[in-house]
Design a protein that fits this description.
Layout: E1 3-7, H1 11-16, E2 26-30, E3 35-37, E4 51-53, E5 55-61, E6 77-85, E7 87-88, H2 89-98, H3 103-106, E8 112-114, E9 118-119, E10 130-135, E11 138-144, H4 152-159, E12 170-172, E13 180-181, E14 187-192, E15 195-201
Parallel strand pairs: 1-12, 3-8
Antiparallel strand pairs: 1-2, 4-7, 4-13, 5-6, 5-12, 6-8, 6-9, 10-11, 10-14, 14-15
Bound molecules: zinc ion (ZN).
Zinc ion is lined by residues 5, 7, 54, 56, 85, 172, 174-175.
């Protein structure tokens, strides 16, 4: 499986990192070795001094597809989850400055936290999914899916022009404003429509 990630998909977050709001989705990938299942600890890596959390809505692909039209995209997923796209911001800034790919800063082991998946039909408000990230019990990110610049179906249409989507692939749909650093000893918890979806400590 692969992780397909969307960057700069919330205007307020693009602004906080001083990036332009994109005209088409910004995409990058993480390898399967980036997976960190929701309640395991995250070990702070030696190669960075500025690991940031980015809490995001996740979409799990349940059908094989290529060149999917937006109007059919809803047939390719039926579960939504919550996760963290851990980012080595110091490495990413260095790579961006040099115009190099972000993989080292985004695809390292443990960088893709995946919480529990729930059926879309079980959500209270599937057209405007609410989610939060708590750091040490304090809300640091708060998002609504309607604030995405590119919605889930548009992302599927766009990405599937370039890469075949396979069963089990997971899309990270981008993060709202409020990203920030983590430190050893921090506790992160994600809430999807108010329910705990993942919880992990930084070690
Ligand atoms: Zn992200």
């Amino acid at each position: 499986m692969k992780f397909i990630c969307i960057g700069r998909n919330y205007a307020e977050h693009a602004k906080e990192l001083k990036n332009a709001v994109p005209a088409e989705p910004v995409i990058f990938f993480k390898p399967d070795t980036a997976l960190l299942v929701g309640r395991q600890p995250f070990f702070y890596p030696a190669f960075s001094n500025d690991i940031h959390y980015e809490c995001e809505i996740l979409v799990k692909i349940n059908r094989l597809g290529k060149n999917i039209q937006k109007k059919f995209a809803h047939r390719y997923y039926d579960e939504i989850g919550l996760g963290i796209d851990f980012t080595a911001r110091d490495l990413q800034n260095e790579l961006k400055t040099k115009g190099l790919p972000w993989e080292k800063a985004k695809g390292f082991d443990g960088s893709a936290v995946v919480g529990e998946f729930v059926s879309i039909n079980s959500l209270k408000n599937k057209d405007n999914i609410e989610f939060q990230l708590l750091k040490n019990g304090v809300v640091v990110q708060s998002g609504y899916s309607k604030d995405m610049i590119f919605d889930i179906d548009s992302i599927i249409e766009y990405v599937s022009q370039f890469v075949t989507l396979k069963i089990g692939d997971i899309i990270f749909t981008g993060t709202p404003a409020g990203v920030g650093p983590v430190a050893v000893g921090d506790q992160l918890e994600g809430l999807l429509e108010g329910e705990s979806n993942f919880s992990l400590s930084i070690k």
